[in-house]
Amino acid sequence: MSEEGISPRLKEYLLKEFGTIGEFAKQMARHNPKVLKAWVHYRGAVFEDSAEGLPKKYRELIGMTIEVTTGRPNGKAGERHARLAVRAGATLREVFDTVMLCEFFSGATNYVDYGMAVVRAAEDEVQKIKAEQK
Fold first, then answer.
1. How much is the pLDDT for 129?
2. Distance between CA atoms of residues 52 and 65, nearest Å
3. What residues contact residue 129 under an 8 Å CB cut-off, 6+ apart?
4. What number is the average pLDDT over the span 18-47?
5. Are 55 and 49 in contact (CB under 8 A)?
6. What string of H, E and C letters represents the secondary structure of 80-92?
7. Residue 16: C-alpha distances to residues 12, 80, 103 (Å)
8. pLDDT of 131 above 60
9. What are phi and psi of 25, to 5 degrees?
10. pTM, to two decimals
11. What is the full DSSP assignment across the chain?
12. Taking the domains of the chain in order of start, what are their residue ranges?
């Protein structure tokens, strides 16, 4: 699908947050670019790092928790939130402990099916950050 209708600023945000221009964004842009713009603005407000509210790392950990607990079919959203949580300052232990809370409340199968991939994504992101710092 084409990226037509997606402004350079929106593309920059989507690439930063998702690493790609997802099919959902292309579809929104194709049918009503104002919806995509509004969605990005809304998402930005929900995940902003605010001195008065939750720090971004906790917002990402909560997003990761919801993705793992609900068992999203491909698990990629949870992995993305794990990576973003690490980028926002979460430690591997915080990611792991959060996944263990998911496992406790939603069962061991969610850990095996989704949680392990989330912890691996955070481990991978820590390695990337170390490599970037060299």
1. 94
2. 22
3. 86, 87
4. 91
5. yes
6. HHHHHHHHCCCCH
7. 6, 11, 29
8. yes
9. -70, -40
10. 0.73
11. ---TT--HHHHHHHHHHHSS--HHHHHHHHH-HHHHHHHHHHHHHHT---SSS--HHHHHHHHHHHHHHHT-TT-HHHHHHHHHHHHTT--HHHHHHHHHHHHHHH-HHHIIIIIHHHHHHHHHHHHHHHHHH-
12. 8-46, 56-133
Q: What is the pLDDT of residues 88-121, one digit of tens each?
A: 999 999 999 999 988 888 877 778 888 888 999 9
Q: How many residues does the chain have?
A: 134
Lookup: tokens for 63: 């997003």
User: CATH number for the 56-133 domain, one of 3.30.1360.60, 3.40.190.10, 1.20.1290.10, 1.10.287.180?
Assistant: 1.20.1290.10
